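Hey team,

Sharing the Ras-related protein Rab-30-like protein run so nobody has to redo it. Sequence (102 residues) first:
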Amino acid sequence: MDQYAGTSNRSVLKVLVGNKCDKEREIPVHIADQFAHNNNFNIFMETSALQAENVEKLFYEIADVLVAKSQSLAVNGPIQSSTNVDISSENSSRGCMSCLYN
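Structure output:
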């Protein structure tokens, strides 16, 4: 988490998903919830792809947050990022995430 902290701004949506909630729990919900809160995640949800539990709900939750962020940007203007990325460097051909690995 720390290595990406300076590469984004507040407009980035951070989602923590605990998958396989149909299986025996390895991490208590309150620990995962606290982790999400401490690391400024916008959404924390547990899902089960096998049983399709909360999968659709997660997508709707993401859509709701994105719409709210979009409306906020329309009213308040874009959030200024303090991070500059040089897209003209040689490494830019490796893909959109290559700037994170330089």
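Residues 15-74 form one domain.

Ping me if you want the raw files.
A.
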